[in-house]
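User: AraC-type DNA-binding protein. Structure?
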Amino acid sequence: MFDSYKHFLETPGYHKIIGEDYLIVEFKCPIKEELFAAWSECHSIVYVLNGQKKWITPDNDYLVQADQSIFIRKGAFKNQQYFEESFCVLMFFMKDDFIKKCIENDIRNETTELHKMEHPEVIYRIDVTESLRVLYESFFSYLKEPNKTPQKIVELKFREMLMNICLNPKNKNIKNVLFTLAQQSEYPIEQIMEEQYFYNLNIEEYARLCGKSLSTFKRYFKKAYNTTPSKWLLSKRLNLARELMLNTDFTIQQICYDCGFESDSHFVRSFKSTYGITPNKWRIQKTPAAS
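Assistant: Predicted structure:
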């Protein structure tokens, strides 16, 4: 799966600014497929400069066009691309520590109306005012000459941008989700796994999402679920696959993709190993027409 933060952090050729706990990059999407999955260990803000792209989550689809913006919690999602016109975007990646710093030092001082959210969405639309648009565009000069701009200036501009978003009453959900993220000393493994198990992430990537080393992640996982991550993921994905086979007319290939399996053959092999029958034969047996 495409690791967006790591790709833009490590790949040369992009206009970007790398901070201690943030990354700002201007880019045209490097993926050529119309539909693809991506993930990031950082939260992010996207501002579309040209073209359009659709972000797809289990709960909703978000078509984002030029001069529109969204906030994305860290984790995985799917993208649908449109090749009729070129797509260009500004992307602001933020680690948890950066959000905590902004909440404690900036946003909390300007507003008392902060509420913790029990089940925040993966994606939120951002209302783009003229002042926010000017702030977004102000990063272009820094991106063109990143080595000539002190990091402190860029960080202050980034924090000003977040403040602008949060002080807009139309963005109250953004303000509250940032506050919620800042209150979490660490992400509960259960929350991340339940939200992300149907994406094709490997164990090391799930560990990074949880902000833990691989060994620490496995230890915490064993304590939470009394099994290994691999066994738990396989069980969850197979159960979801069976549900989709019974309740939808999706093809086996689509179900494989939607449940996080590496390939059709991996899904069929795992299903038969667990249930002693292929997915197609199981589906035929369970459909009403077969009874």
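The mean pLDDT is 92. The chain has two domains: 2-183, 189-290.
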